[in-house]
Amino acid sequence: MNDMEIPAVLESTFALEQLTRIANDMDEHQFTLLFKPIFGVDVSESVYLDIWQALRDGMIEGPAYAVVERNEAFRAARYDSEQDTLLVNRDVIEQALNEPNTSPGLLLALIGGFGQYLADQIHSKCVAEGEIDSPELDLEDAKEAGSKYASLMAFLDSSPTDGLEFAHYTHDALSAPLVLDLSDTPELEEFLPEAPITIRPRFGAGEGGHGTIERVLEEVGFDETEIKSIYFGNWLRDHSQLVDPKLVRAEDAPRNFPNQFSRSALTAIVDILAAKEFRNQQDDGEEQGDFQVSPEVLGVYKASEHIDNPTNHDESPVDPTEIDPDFEKPVLPGTESTQVCPKTSMKAYIDKPVAHMSSKIREAAREGKTAEGMRAFGEALHVLEDYFAHSNFVELSLHKQGHTQVLPWTTEVECEHGLPVITGLFSGTDILGSLAEPLGKVLFPDEYPAFKEITPGYRSTSEQILLILLGELENPTWLKAFEKLLALRDRYADNPLFRFVRRATWTLLLPLNLVRYYGRKLFQDLFQWLGDRVGEEQTRSGMNPNTDARADATHSQLSKDHDSHPFYDLAIDMARHAVKQVGEEMFRFWNGEVEHPPADLASGFICHPYDSSWQDSLVAEWLEKHEDKVQAASAFDSLKAIYDKHIETLLEKLEALEVNSMQTT
Description:
Residues 537-561 are annotated as: Disordered. This protein is mainly α.
């Protein structure tokens, strides 16, 4: 009789069979999407594809198991790459036999050890293919990969239920199955961690821009709800700039994302942004529908709705109406609307925005103080406010008071006042601000949602937008993969084993981190596309409309939307004054105190500053405190430097948004 102790033996095929089931249930792209965040976003997809195929073909055997005495280097299990063996501490196994409520920890440790084995296999493949120089996988990296892998597998696989036999243990006379006991599963509320905190479009919408200007409506009697409804109309005009002919493909054109979007996709994105900005997610009241965005409500970019210069300087201009009939036809240089009216000393195309503004005020009058009426009024105010931010009205107002050194952004022509009122060309860098920055903020949010919000069917703002963007791809593979992951998350609350994992936060945030990962790829493409246009715009911004009569000022040269511009505060003051006057008359009309809506009053503000006097006192008061800013706006190179710095800052902000796009917690 041999008195030697028989070595303890642990046998388990659970982890391998679990991963094989998942590989058989997913296509290769879904498989890759799930495991990149664990084993490396920079690992080539061919490596993941090889593993996926080998699992489906039954070609992966997995590591051997070895039971070891207490090892202080690890608590429960660790993969040893030199022996190709998963080492498991004997006391943890026997504790699971004697105290079955500890069995979930052992099962997760075995799954995590299998994850370490996979990390080693992937690392070896990358070394063999020249993707990685270091021959050895760092131990801490392997442990982290194993921990994330165990959490992800518990998240994906709902098959582990109470009573599951996941391994078999033999030692001396003992031969016993290891059975999963979920009797101590924590309640969902106890398990969910606190959500971690990570880490202007034009006057731009929101604080410091149109939204701030319209706070002046409080002073004439409008309440918070009414101001919100009015601002919605203004906000819509800002965001209709997303639906730009430079970005939109024709309805019957092939997909060409990210160079082009469908109009429906851009509209859907704006609707999501509107929900975030205006719709109370806790309130199902009827008024929530007042802030829904449809193609009809949003419309498309029209120069006339923003008082922009509509002149198209492209060598071979495309007719935007061939893309979508709602766009405006191109206005070519030298045509009548690009000329200066001798009597008014204003560009002729400005008549069209004024007519649009008046039409919207009359529409507001017809609709009354309803959601539709207030939205129309907000759209009218958008034109009025843009006039002061996007024209040279401020500059010419300073000329009127003797500060003729201020750049007027035009040359003298034959007209009543010599220097005419002009507005700027909307172009590539403006798309950078109106598209890239808002998209960046939602794709790479500063905060994650509270986990209690992640209920079945929950989709964060960034997830909703990524679903739309992925739907713009010709190949639906990535869309299906992302939908699959979201569907799996919908079921996580029904999976008791997941409540024992150590990486719950990381796993629950995986869809959002994948948004950040794919968002990074999107932004790389978008940066390249925008870079070409920014280069073109910077070339045009180098032309000097103050000395070259052939040069049209760009929107960026004239824009006072940002506080870096010397005349930002003065433009805001003028806009607030005009909005207050027009808002007061609209308030009185809706209350039946006056007979006519303020269409003529609003139109009267859009004139040459030499033909009005209301702004003179504002300018004089501003000059008393800001005389130094006059000099800053008197040198072309100085203002160009401000513009270049603004573009540089915007690009830096966007790069900062995406640089941590695969942050994990």
